[in-house]
Amino acid sequence: MDKQAAYTLTVDGLSVSYGNFNAVQNVSFNVRKGEIFGLLGPNGAGKTSTLSAIEGLLKPQAGTIIVNGNNTVSKQLHARASLGVQLQSTSFQAELFVIEVLQLYAGIYGVPAGKAELMNILKEINLEGSANKKFGELSGGQQQRVSLVIATIHNPRLVLLDEPTSGLDPQSRRQLWERIEAIRERGHAVLLTTHSMEEAESVCDRIAIIDHGKVIAVDTPQGMIDKYKDDPEVVAVSRRGRITLEDVFIALTGKAIRS
Ligand SMILES: Nc1ncnc2c1ncn2[C@@H]1O[C@H](COP(=O)(O)OP(=O)(O)O)[C@@H](O)[C@H]1O
Ligand SMILES: [Mg+2]
User: Fold this and answer.
1) Disulfide: which of 9, 14, 150, 221 matches 31 by Cβ 3.0-4.6 Å?
2) Chain centroid to CA 104: how far?
3) By the 8 A CB rule, do 54 and 68 touch?
């Protein structure tokens, strides 16, 4: 297998600008088949802009993005067909019934699923009793479950999740992690963004720390800790004498609070 074929996503030299402002600068990373890859960065780091470029919602200033062998510019339709996307705080029409939301997205993706199949999908996420509730009436965790199911209804090779678990309680978060891991079990790849070190350590096979639009480090969570554990700046910010991924993150991205 050549190198390219081992990657579900290749991002090479990506730059994204808003007017004169360079939000993403020369970002490169790969996501392998069957890998959960995390983009870790403070607010404004450029995570959502990176995902938007991969999705084709934003035109990059520079760089190449290959999804499942398809260039997102020259083979846009093929690239998009390989993608499932859960945007940050996705808001479906809150007034739609849950079953209608599923019908809508099955239709958009051309998935031939009748009502019985969609009810089965709801059963899998323990929401069979909520088919006729309005989406807006569901709890945050329930809404996230529906969002993930919709993002993966066409069984995409690459799933993009923008802060999938922010605001969820621990139970809902665990459940979502299991669903994300189930995507990996199918051999498909996941690219997610998160602020949560715990999430990065618990579910991500590899992570990239990104700040001010640049990739600072790419490694496994443990590899990242091992690499920086003796760095004086990391040791200086560590608490209780044990070096954590958060210590590495804070040392690499600085202590200043981002708005
Ligand atoms: N539509 C936009 N117009 C202008 N600036 C933007 C726009 N979207 C994002 N930005 C800026 O680009 C930078 C990166 O934003 P974003 O990709 O949303 O970061 P993150 O998702 O990591 O919080 C931030 O400084 C943000 O203010
Ligand atoms: Mg964001």
Assistant:
1) 9
2) 22
3) no
Q: Is 25 in the pocket of ligand 1 (CB under 6 A)?
A: no
pTM tops 0.85? yes
| Residue carrying the six token digits 């329930």 | 142
Which tens digits make up the pLDDT trace of 19-77? 999 999 999 999 999 999 999 999 999 999 999 999 998 999 999 999 999 999 999 99
Residue type, 83: L
- Burial class, 218, CB count within 10 angstroms (exposed 0-12 / middle 13-18 / buried 19+): middle
DSSP one-letter code for 239: B
**CA gap 45, 56 in Å, rounded:** 19
CA distances in angstroms from 139 to 86, 125, 231, listed in the order given: 17, 13, 43
Q: Pocket of ligand 1, candidates 48, 54, 195, 253: which has the most ligand atoms within 8 Å of its Cβ, to mutate?
A: 48
Give the residue from 68, 27, 32, 66 showing the smallest Cα distance to 49.
27
Q: Read off the pLDDT of residues 182-213 as tens digits, 9 standing for 90 and up.
A: 999 999 999 999 989 999 999 999 999 999 99
Residue 49, SS3 per DSSP:
helix
Dihedral sign from CA coordinates of 142, 144, 150, 155: negative
> How many whole angstroms from 259 Cα to the centroid of ligand 1?
11
**Other residues' Cβ atoms within 10 Å of the Cβ of residue 229:** 15
